[in-house]
Structure formats: C-alpha cells, structure tokens
C-alpha cells in the first residue's frame, strides 16, 4: 500500500501536468453523521442513491465521473476504489455489493448504519480565482483533475477517517454509541464506501464533499 508521502508526490506531479492543486485539509463530523439502515430495502435504496441508480439516476450529471466508489473483485474479497464512466459501470458495482451483502448477511435490527462525514479541501492562497466561473447565472468553480489526482484526494480522506483520534478530529458532541463507531469500535466490516465529488459545497476558499461509509456492526 502506498504511503501518504508517495501519494502526495504523485499528486504533485499531476498538478504540474495541469490538475487543479486542490488539497485535503480536514475531516468534520456534523451534528447527525449516522443513520441506521433498518432493512434490506433501505440498504438497497441507499446504495442506489450513492451510485445514482434507479430513481436516483436524475442526479447523475457529468460530474458523477469524479465520484470515487468502492468496488469488489468477483469473489468479493478484495476491495478497490475507482471512478466510473457509465451507468453500466455503476450497475456492475451495485451487483457486486449485492453479492457481498448476501455473504455478510447483516443483522438489520441493530447491525447496519450509514456514516456521512465532510471532507474539506482547500486551494493554495491566491489560486481560487483561476477556477471561478459563472454557470447558469451562478458563480461556481471548475476543477480539472486527473484520475490519479482524484484517487489521491480520496486516499487522504480515507486515511483521515481511519486516524480520527490521532488527528484530533472533533466528535465529542456525538452520543456514546456513535463515538464508539467513530473509533471503529464494534465495526465488523465496511459494506460500501463512496466519496461524492458530484455534490460539493463552496464556502470562501474551501470546498467540501461527503464521504459515505456503510458499516456492518458486530453488535457487541
């Protein structure tokens, strides 16, 4: 597995080639980062939303290609993270997650939840103006990033989520059971994960996007 230092080097090279120099800054837990998934039907609905499938295909605009999704091999043993380029790609991921779900046989009464955390990114000082544009009468930003660069951003988000304690991320406002999940205490498996860069917010010089993770809890 690549170290974050190696990932940064790759991203620096990609930035020199033209990728926007957007960098991961921090992770934030909102007021309600956890939602219970009480049934298989609800789980399928959540997966369809994250993958922009079924009734949620209306959200699949051009920027969906920037999203990073967890995928599995045919044996559902080795997860990998990738971008997709078509609805067929996303349908394939959905089908493999369905097989993985059947193998795990989660307890829907108290064993499955969706976590949503905010990943905050920043640009170097003075760079924001280069990417500002007007679209449909509204001011927004347009970032051009290569596949390696986007996967690098995801790697930083994933690493920050795993190192919440050492990074000093604020989560003291959450309930005790929620704090246990934050520390991955009682987490049996990750059923699915996605960084949705097709749904971002801009505030000042910061851009943020949601990292969604579906946890299978062991109930202990």
Secondary-structure topology with pairs:
Blueprint: H1 4-16, E1 23-28, E2 34-36, H2 40-50, E3 68-72, E4 79-82, H3 87-104, E5 112-122, E6 132-135, E7 138-141, H4 147-162, H5 164-167, H6 176-182, E8 187-203, E9 206-217
Antiparallel strand pairs: 1-5, 2-5, 3-4, 3-8, 5-9, 6-7, 8-9
Helix pairs in contact: 1-4
Number of strands: 9
Average pLDDT score: 91
Shape: globular
Fraction of residues in helices?
Answer: 25-40%
Profile the largest sheet.
7 strands, antiparallel
Beta-strand content bin: 25-35%
Output the number of helix runs: 6
Termini separation comes to 30 Å
Model regions low in confidence, pLDDT < 50 over at least 5 residues: none
What class do helices, strands and sheet pairing give?
Answer: alpha+beta
Order of helices and strands: HEEHEEHEEEHHHEE
Please state the CA-atom Rg, rounded to the nearest Å: 18 Å
Give the count of structural domains. 1
Task: Tell me about this structure.
- The protein is of the alpha+beta class and 220 residues long.
- The protein has one domain.
- Helices cover 31% and strands 30% of the residues.
- Strands 1, 2, 3, 4, 5, 8 and 9 form a seven-stranded antiparallel sheet that branches. Strands 6-7 form a two-stranded antiparallel sheet.
- A hairpin with a 2-residue loop joins strand 6 and strand 7.
- Helix 1 packs antiparallel against helix 4.
- The longest helix is centred in the middle third of the chain and has 18 residues.
- The radius of gyration is 18 Å and the shape is globular.
């Amino acid at each position: 597995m690549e170290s974050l230092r190696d990932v940064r080097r790759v991203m620096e090279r990609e930035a020199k080639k033209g990728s926007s120099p957007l960098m991961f800054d921090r992770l934030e837990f909102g007021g309600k980062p956890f939602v219970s998934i009480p049934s298989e039907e609800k789980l399928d609905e959540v997966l369809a939303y994250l993958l922009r499938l079924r009734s949620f295909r209306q959200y699949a605009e051009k920027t969906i290609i920037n999203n990073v999704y967890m995928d599995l091999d045919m044996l559902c043993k080795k997860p990998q993270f990738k971008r997709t380029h078509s609805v067929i790609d996303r349908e394939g991921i959905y089908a493999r997650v369905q097989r993985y779900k059947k193998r795990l046989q989660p307890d829907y009464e108290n064993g499955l939840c969706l976590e949503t955390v905010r990943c905050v990114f920043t640009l170097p000082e003075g760079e924001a103006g280069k990417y500002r544009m007007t679209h449909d009468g509204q001011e927004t930003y347009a970032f051009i990033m290569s596949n390696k660069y986007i996967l690098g951003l995801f790697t930083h988000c994933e690493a920050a989520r795993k190192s919440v304690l050492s990074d000093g991320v604020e989560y003291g406002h959450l309930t005790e059971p929620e704090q246990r999940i934050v520390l991955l205490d009682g987490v049996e498996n990750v059923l699915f994960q996605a960084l949705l860069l097709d749904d971002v917010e801009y505030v000042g010089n910061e851009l943020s996007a949601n990292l969604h993770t579906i946890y299978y809890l062991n109930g202990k």
